[in-house]
Structure formats: C-alpha cells, structure tokens
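Quick one: structure for this chain?
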Amino acid sequence: MRRRTAIVVTVLAFVSILSGCVVQRSPDTRTMHGAHAVMATSSSEPSYLAEMVPHHEEAIRAARELARSERPEMRRLGEDIVASQSAQVEQMRGWLDRWWPDTAEDTAYRPMMRDLSGLDGDALDRAFLDDMVGHHMVAVMMSQRLLTGLAAVHREVADLARRVSADQRAEIARMRAWQWAWFGERGSMMYGR
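Got it. Here's what it folds into:
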C-alpha cells in the first residue's frame, strides 16, 4: 500500500511540475473523481488497456467537435487526436482480444469532459482546451503508473504507454500555450469547470 501511495504521489508531483500549476478542484468535481478512479485501478496491463480504450474514445468524440472551430490550429489538433487515438484504440482492442480475452473494456467509465455539441467559436475552443488538458493529464498519469509500476507484460504495451505519455505531454504544452495566447489564461490543471 505504501509503494502504491508513493507511486501516485510521485506521478502527481511529476504532472504538477509538468503543468506548472496546482491541481484545483472546481464545484463540479466529477472529473476529479474520474481521475481518482482511474488511478486506483490501472495498475496492470489488462486494466490499463481496458480503461484506456474508453478514455481515448471520449477524447475522440470531443476532438471531432473541433471540426466546427474557427481556428485552423484547433481543427488540426482535433484531426490529429482523432487519427492517432483511433489507431491506438484499434491496437489496444486487438491486444485485449489476443492477450487478455477475459478482460472487458471498462463499461463503468465516467466521462471527464463536458458535452461540446452546443458550443461554437471561442466557447468551443476554450471548453475543449480546459477539459482536454485535464483529460490528457490523466492519460499521462495512467501511462506513467503502468511504466513506473513495471506492470507492462508486453513490450508493445510499454511502448504505447511511453508514446501516449510523450504525445499527450506535448499536446498539453501546446494547449496551455493557446489558453494563454487566446484567452489570457495560465492554463491551470482544472478538472471540471
């Protein structure tokens, strides 16, 4: 139990350093609870894959909404997320079928992002950036937990976790820069609103 707590604290410290900010709770803490649930369970390779599939699918759904953005940078980001994470979902489902056939995808996944379908213009871009920064940070934490806990059984899964972590850290930095440039926000790690 102490080792698990130490790993969680280390990962949260890493993410705080990466984000340059303090984790804040908002009145709507559903996403913070989702993060705690993920951190509590994704300590094995099959659970990582089973949890990452719906996590990625939520990001894909949200990223598709960016096709309506007025900013070409946001439209490109949306296209990149849809393409890369759709390929990763297919890959993870294949691994689950091949290596962990008795492990079902996480059907109890709790969404972390708000519904973006009714938003447009700055409201769409701002909501997406606010939500996706936190969403990506959870994916980084899940991936780092798998790697630091040495829970990856297959090299391919460890490689994917490293790629998810690196790619999403880079996207977090880009999104935080846009939050500052476009909205004058420092881009705090806000789970929720």
